[in-house]
UniProtKB/TrEMBL annotation:
It comes from the Bacteria. This is CDP-4-dehydro-6-deoxyglucose reductase. It comes from Aneurinibacillus migulanus. PROSITE patterns: 2FE2S_FER_2. Pfam families: Fer2.
Length: 89
């Protein structure tokens, strides 16, 4: 399991669960929409750490966004401890 720091709020996330699921279990409020990688409401920016990104829409997370370390919490699975910030679209 890994720790995730969201702007000073720290919670535990297992590699098989996405950041959004783990945040909800820990009562950490993150913006949420479709929970399926299609709306972009849970967009975050990774400051530190590594992860695997599940399938999501390129309309809400372009290749350029991905290169700039933006991701969607509902489709992000940690492979290390992480630090993320909430980012508006």
């Amino acid at each position: 399991m890994f720790t995730v720091n969201v702007m000073g709020q720290i919670y535990i996330c297992h590699p098989e669960e996405n950041l959004l699921e783990a945040a909800r279990k820990s009562h950490i409020p993150l913006p949420v929409g479709c929970c399926n990688g299609g709306c972009g409401m849970c967009r975050i920016k990774v400051v530190k750490g590594t992860f695997t990104l599940g399938i999501c829409s390129k309309a809400v997370l372009s290749d350029r966004d991905r290169e700039a370390n933006y991701t969607l919490a509902c489709k992000t699975y940690p492979s290390s401890n992480m630090e993320v910030t909430l980012e508006s679209i």
